[in-house]
């Protein structure tokens, strides 16, 4: 059984990916210092899969402590590096904290990967690397524009660091995965997203409104040049996203591609407007949502969605869920977690 290190394994995307990895025969070890999560999620993973996952509550910025985990597990077949701080707004207020955490943790994990000869590495990147893309859908070779936040810059820098590193590590293969808008929860509702308080992403804002944790959902603008005036995004179900990691790892292991470092878009390839997302919630859950149109949110791009054909072609990955599935599972999770 191949053993995988998942950093940030107690977080939102990491925990769902662990479920998919376990269900596909991988063994998993997690490193997560719990700065934005709790180990309760490991109980949910156990109830879904029947498998215990060990988490090391280690800060990846601590090189020695990180290295000790590798020396206890010198047989990792791959690393999936999720651990990072991810709040766009917070990164604007605390840029140095974001650069320190997201860059130093990456450097330490890469150093350990080299020291312990781990052959496969997957990095959590983001559609935010594209900035305000000029052409849609965005392809992997769509040129980047200026990053919109220090957070987005840590993803651009992370990708560049890995590309340079891949030039000197001939035995290693890297996949950079650019996520669009992950949302939804495991269908069991045993794990899901626990957003910071108050939530700022659209789907948790909607479910928190419907459950009564907040009075209303404000749609940020209806005067954009889109089909109904609200912004367009590519919402990808968390279990589709999780499965793409397993597929990417299997691709690196089985195919050993010539290209040492490759990049993949992970979105469903369709744009959904904010208002369409609101209607999808009402349709999928039978709940009426208290929403109103408000002013635009500064920094929002008008529209972004993925061309995911490369992921389909090379990874053999296809998303299976749509916006209704996202809303349904997010709602089941919201009811469970309160
Ligand atoms: P999350 O906050 O739920 O999970 C990240 C985990 O990393 C947390 O559990 C946190 O405790 C841990 N962590 C952070 N810094 C650490 C450190 N120095 N040492 C050890 N553990 C540390 O976030 P998520 O939504 O699961 O995101 C996972 C990755 O995907 C991140 O790199 C994020 O930037 C990226 N991403 C997320 C989204 C999104 O919308 N959720 C979109 C694109 C990319
Ligand atoms: C989605 C749409 C809002 C809240 C962020 C990061 C990005 C990536 C994914 C990490 C937008 C609208 C939202 C609300 C609203 N994360 N909205 N009312 O901004 O597309 O992307 O998460 O890498 O880097 O920036 O996601 O969920 O905040 O917004 O109308 O209360 O919903 O204007 O059009 P975003 P979001």
Shape: globular
Overall mean pLDDT stands at 97
CATH architecture field of one domain: 3-Layer(aba) Sandwich
Helix content: 40-55%
Bound molecules: nicotinamide-adenine-dinucleotide, UDP-4-deoxy-4-formamido-beta-L-arabinopyranose
Number of strands: 13
Helices and strands, in order, run as EHEHEHEHHEHEEHEEEHEEHEHH
Q: Can you say what the CATH homologous superfamily of one domain is?
A: NAD(P)-binding Rossmann-like Domain
Uncertain runs with pLDDT below 50, 5 residues or more?
A: none
Biggest sheet architecture: 7 strands, parallel
β-strand amount: 15-25%
Please, could you describe this protein's structure?
This protein has 11 helices and 13 strands. It is of the alpha/beta class. The strands form 4 sheets. Strands 3-2-1-4-5-6-11 form a 7-stranded parallel beta sheet, with helices on both faces. It has a two-stranded parallel ribbon with strand order 7-10. The mean pLDDT is 97. Helices cover 41% and strands 17% of the residues. The protein has a domain at 3-186 and 237-268 and 309-320: Rossmann fold, CATH 3.40.50. It is globular and about 55 Å long. The protein binds nicotinamide-adenine-dinucleotide (NAD) and UDP-4-deoxy-4-formamido-beta-L-arabinopyranose. UDP-4-deoxy-4-formamido-beta-L-arabinopyranose is lined by residues 86, 88, 126, 128, 181, 200-202, 205, 217-220, 231, 233, 274, 297, 300. Nicotinamide-adenine-dinucleotide (NAD) binds next to α1, α5 and β5.
């Amino acid at each position: 059984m191949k053993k995988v290190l998942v950093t940030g394994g107690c977080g939102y995307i990491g925990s769902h990916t662990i479920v998919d990895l376990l269900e596909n025969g991988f063994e998993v070890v997690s490193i997560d210092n719990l700065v934005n999560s709790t180990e309760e999620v490991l109980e949910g993973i156990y109830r879904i899969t029947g498998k215990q996952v060990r988490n090391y509550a280690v800060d990846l910025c601590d090189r020695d402590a990180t290295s000790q985990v590798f020396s206890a597990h010198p047989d990792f077949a791959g690393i999936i590096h999720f651990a990072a701080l991810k709040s766009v707004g917070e990164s604007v207020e605390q840029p140095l904290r974001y650069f320190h955490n997201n860059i130093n943790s990456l450097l330490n994990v890469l150093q350990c990967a080299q020291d312990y000869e781990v052959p496969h590495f997957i990095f959590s990147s983001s559609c935010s690397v594209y900035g305000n893309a000029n052409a849609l859908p965005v392809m992997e070779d769509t040129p980047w524009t200026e990053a919109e936040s220090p957070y987005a810059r840590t993803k651009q820098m992370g990708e560049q660091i890995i590309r340079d590193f891949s030039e000197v590590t001939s035995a290693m293969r890297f996949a950079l995965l650019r996520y669009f808008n992950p949302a939804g929860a495991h269908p069991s509702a045993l794990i899901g997203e626990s957003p910071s308080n108050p939530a700022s992403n659209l789907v948790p804002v909607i479910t928190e409104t419907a459950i009564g944790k907040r009075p209303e959902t404000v749609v940020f603008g209806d005067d954009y040049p889109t089909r109904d005036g609200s912004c367009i995004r590519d919402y990808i179900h968390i279990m589709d996203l999780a499965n793409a990691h397993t597929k990417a790892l299997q691709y690196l292991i089985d195919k050993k591609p010539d290209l040492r470092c490759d990049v993949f878009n992970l979105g469903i390839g369709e744009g959904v407007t904010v208002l369409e997302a609101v209607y999808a919630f009402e349709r999928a859950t039978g709940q009426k949502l208290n929403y109103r149109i408000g002013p635009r949110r500064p920094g929002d791009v008008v529209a972004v969605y993925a061309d995911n054909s490369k992921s389909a072609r090379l990874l053999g990955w296809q998303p299976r869920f749509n916006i209704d599935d996202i809303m349904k599972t997010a709602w089941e999770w919201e009811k469970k977690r309160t």
